[in-house]
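> run fold SRPBCC domain-containing protein
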Amino acid sequence: MNTTTSKRTDSAARVIHATPEVIYAAYLDAKAIAAWRPPQGMHAEIYEFNPRPGGTFRMSFGYDESDHSVTGKTSEHADVFHGHFAELIPHQRIVELVEFESDDPAFAGEMKITTTLVRERHGTNVNVVCENVPLGIKAEDHQQGIQSTLANLAQYVER
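> ok
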């Protein structure tokens, strides 16, 4: 469903040439997250990161260049968000509940991000599903961001 009054679901998948164990570990390490999770053109700062069921996190993605086409959700140049790990099934699934820190109601609400890892012959199928995406996030921007993040993850774990 993708209407102007309903929140939507965005998803992307990629086969990454690494084991589910290696990819899962990259999701649970703050330094790794800072290295691969921000989409192209952004960088991360981790303020809090407690990777356990119910554990909380808080981080920001900042734009690398001051001249960028998309305005940040928290400030002109940054997206600050917090959340918690709703579910962690080792080497199989990570469920995060995320909220953006923004005064703009278009970015309000809790977004659920479910990442599923399925072992395949030549690697791992990594499937990311974002539910209840805030209306302020354009579908095409979010799709590019998810794809960029998956490419970064592949580059990080395949080296």
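The first strand starts at residue 8 and ends at 16.
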